[in-house]
Specification:
Length: 270
């Protein structure tokens, strides 16, 4: 399977984590199930170790499996300094299609509560370094943001002149309509996952964003879509998210698959 030439993908899972321990027992089977259903995938790093594993896994396959490398904002602390040379070396691998996941996350962090300004400033500094790396290697950002869109958008505006065109992807997007409009003006893409199959909070946003700016994702092993809630998520389940996206956008399942795949190919240069 690793050296087979695959047909054109039906769907691209633009953000997953099959290199995580949750898949240690059946990783190859999970990938085979995805391939058998026409699903390609991008495994996303959250620190040095998971970035290495994502790249190693991508390179086991001729096509269909890709990687992103970066440092999650929860890893931005004094004990885990951002290593530019390391991530640059990783980013230059031909199977690496994005820089991240990187960004800001102010959600329920005990460290934020105990030392809010210090942690926020560390996250901002590391995020800016990812922006600079993305420019240096000419690859899009894979951005994680939770409860921090005001600061995130301020940083992106301040660095607007060095953002790539297009600049990247807002992973697992949970911003407001106003945030959406500002990020669309910067030409960002947006990913949505299993949450949209059971949570109606994002319907208005999804209807507002043009289909040519939407990608699909699983964020596996997290946030399985209905009817798989409570189970470990995997790329195969992205089909349920595509069905719900088709319903929300008022188009066919086939059109959602076609357009979101085209979008992913465009942004990731696959």
């Amino acid at each position: 399977m690793s050296n087979e030439k695959l047909g054109n993908p039906l769907i691209i899972d633009s953000h997953t984590h099959l290199q995580f321990a949750a898949f240690n027992k059946d990783r190859e089977e999970v990938i085979k199930r995805a391939f058998d259903s026409g699903i390609w995938l991008v495994n996303v790093g959250t620190d040095k170790e998971s970035s290495i594993k994502a790249v190693e896994l991508a390179n086991k396959y001729k096509e269909g499996v890709y990687a992103a490398v970066g440092q999650h904002p929860h890893e931005a602390n004094n004990d885990n300094d951002y290593d530019h040379d390391f991530f640059k070396k990783m980013a230059l691998d031909s199977k690496v299609v994005a820089i991240g996941e990187c960004g800001l996350d102010y959600y329920r962090s005990q460290e934020i509560q105990n030392s809010e300004l210090r942690i926020k400033n560390l996250q901002k500094d590391v995020f800016i370094k990812h922006i600079e790396l993305a420019k240096e290697v000419q690859k899009p950002l894979m951005i994680h943001c939770r409860d921090a869109f005001g600061d995130l958008i301020k940083i992106l505006n301040s660095k607007f002149l060095i953002l790539n065109s297009p600049p990247g992807v807002m992973h697992f997007f949970t911003g407001t309509l106003d945030d959406t409009k500002k990020l669309l003006e910067m030409d960002f893409y947006f990913t949505f996952g299993g949450l949209i199959t059971f949570n109606r909070s994002f319907d208005e946003i999804i209807k507002f964003i043009p289909l040519d700016k939407i990608l699909l994702e699983t964020d596996a092993p997290y946030v399985s879509p209905a009817p798989y809630r409570g189970k470990r998520n995997e790329p195969l389940y992205i089909i349920e998210t595509a069905k719900k996206m088709a319903e929300l956008k008022g188009v066919s399942f086939e059109e959602i698959c076609r357009q979101t795949t085209e979008n992913a190919k465009e942004i990731f240069k696959i």
